[in-house]
Amino acid sequence: MKKVLQMSAVKYAIVGGINTLVCWVVILVLMWFGVIPEVANVLGYAVGFANSYILNKTFTFQSTNSHKQDLIRFGVAMGLAYLINLGVLIVCHRVFLVDKYLSQIIAAVFYTASGYIISKFWAFKQ
């Protein structure tokens, strides 16, 4: 089990699961307290981004780089991953006429894979 947990892809998946939970808890709690959904969404994703950055920097990739370097690169990495996600979504749903829900799932796989690759080989590179 220790060897499996040392693999950065497994760690990235664990962080992704934790991050999704944190993001949704923030969104749902804020909405429960009366915050409008759009504001709750922005705040939830902001907390999720911060959580993801901290966990990926310290746990997944164990980067010793400065926060200034890693945070900027991580932001760019997640922006690129999102653009890849959006491109895949558009091509799947609009060009190949794949069901919109299945297209979202396919796009999410590309987001996760590209986010991992960009983070591993560039954003948190030592």
Features:
126 residues; mainly alpha; 5 helices; 84% helix; globular
Topology:
Elements: H1 2-5, H2 8-32, H3 37-60, H4 67-95, H5 100-123
Helix pairs in contact: 2-3, 4-5
Domain GtrA/DPMS transmembrane: 11-124
Transmembrane segments: 12-36, 42-59, 71-96, 102-123
Family: Belongs to the GtrA family.
Can you offer a commentary on this structure?
This is Putative GtrA family protein. One of its GO terms (biological process) is polysaccharide biosynthetic process. With 126 residues, the chain is an all-alpha fold. It has 2 domains: 1-62, no CATH class; 64-126, no CATH class. The chain is built from 5 helices and no strands. It has helices at residues 2-5, 8-32, 37-60, 67-95, 100-123. Helix 2 (8-32) runs antiparallel to helix 3 (37-60) and helix 4 packs antiparallel against helix 5 (100-123). The longest helix is centred in the middle third of the chain and has 29 residues, at 67-95. The mean pLDDT is 94.
Short description:
This protein has 126 residues and is mainly alpha-helical. It contains five helices and no strands.
| Oligomeric state of the chains in view | single chain
Percent helix range: over 70%
User: What's the alpha carbon Rg, rounded to whole Å?
Assistant: 16 Å
Elements, N to C (H/E): HHHHH
Major sheet characteristics: none
| Termini gap | 26 Å
Count of the separate structural domains: 2
Q: What percent of residues are in strands?
A: under 5%
